[in-house]
Amino acid sequence: MRDVLRRLVEGELTEEEALVELRAIQLEELGGRARIDLGRWLRRGLPEVVLAAGKSPEDAAAIAVAMAERHGEGLISRMSAEHRRALENAARPNGLEIVDYGQSARVMRAGYTPVSIDARAGILTAGTSDLPVANEARMVLEAAGIEVRLEADLGVAGLHRFVAPLAALLEWGADVLVVAAGMDGVLPGLIAGLIALPVIGVPVSTGYGKGGAGEAALLTMLQSCSTGLTVVNIDNGVGAGTAAVLIAARAASRAQSPRPTRSRRR
């Protein structure tokens, strides 16, 4: 990085060339176990998310804390009680703050605030059992500086329950919606057929019997009659949040800068 900065100062690199090199080199190895992608924010406007499941509590905590210390915030998902204890033990002595999202969390340097994006995202769930997955999406969106509103328990077993919250989100000015549903997974398709916003469906592994592990919800969303519904994998709140960030940030960027005119070819 020092070499890139030196060549930039000496005029050997343009600003854009230096940025390309910095993006390429921002990988850091942590104890030979993990390569932390510190350049993801520069490339995509998104921090890396640590998947705690499958990692030891100590390793997962160390990676999240390293990201927070170097980048300002570190995101971690799918934590057990042991993962949470290890995270608290690693973060608090270093003066880092923890923002709780159920089974997920953001670890941040004291006083850190992500750069705000002038965009809004709504998150809806069919039931309260879908909240852990919905909160993953909320974590990613808020980490990217996007304002979020979450409405829960709006399943189609009582159609009257989702009309007012949906109308409120539209009036609020949401740019994109994330809709999480287990069981039959109908809610995302229903909403996508009613509004003109991008809708991202998240099948959740809640329900009874065959198909109750999210397969039925996934197939329902993939087979939806509502055209344009985007669907992520079962329980993939991080993926849904990421897609919502990219959509909302792009909408904000286009709103702030006029679209360039293209000359016609003759």
Task: Give the gist of this structure.
The chain has ten helices and eleven strands. With 266 residues, the protein is of the alpha/beta class.
Task: Show the helix and strand layout.
Elements: H1 2-9, H2 15-25, E1 27-30, E2 34-37, H3 40-44, E3 49-51, H4 57-71, E4 73-77, H5 81-91, E5 96-101, E6 104-109, E7 120-125, H6 131-143, E8 147-151, H7 160-172, E9 176-181, H8 187-192, E10 199-203, H9 215-222, E11 230-231, H10 237-256
Structural notes for this entry:
This protein is an alpha/beta fold. The chain has 2 domains: 23-109, Ribosomal Protein S8, Chain: A, domain 1 (2-Layer Sandwich); 120-254, 3-Layer(aba) Sandwich (Rossmann fold), CATH 3.40.50. The chain contains 10 helices and 11 strands. Strands 8-7-9-10-11 form a 5-stranded parallel β-sheet, with helices on both faces. A 4-stranded mixed β-sheet has the order 3-4-6-5. It has a two-stranded antiparallel ribbon with strand order 1-2. The longest helix is centred in the last third of the chain and has 20 residues, at 237-256. It is globular and about 65 Å long.
- Overall geometry comes to globular
**Number of strand elements:** 11
Number of helices: 10
- In quaternary terms, these chains amount to single chain
Unreliable spans are 262-266
**How many separate domains make up the residues?**
2
End-to-end gap: 46 Å
Task: Give the strand order of the largest sheet, numbering strands 1, 2, ... along the chain.
Answer: 8-7-9-10-11
CA gyration radius, whole angstroms: 20 Å
Order of helices and strands: HHEEHEHEHEEEHEHEHEHEH
Helix content: 40-55%
Strand content is: 15-25%
Kindly provide the name of the CATH class of the largest domain.
Alpha Beta
Architecture of the largest domain, according to CATH? 3-Layer(aba) Sandwich
Structural class: alpha/beta
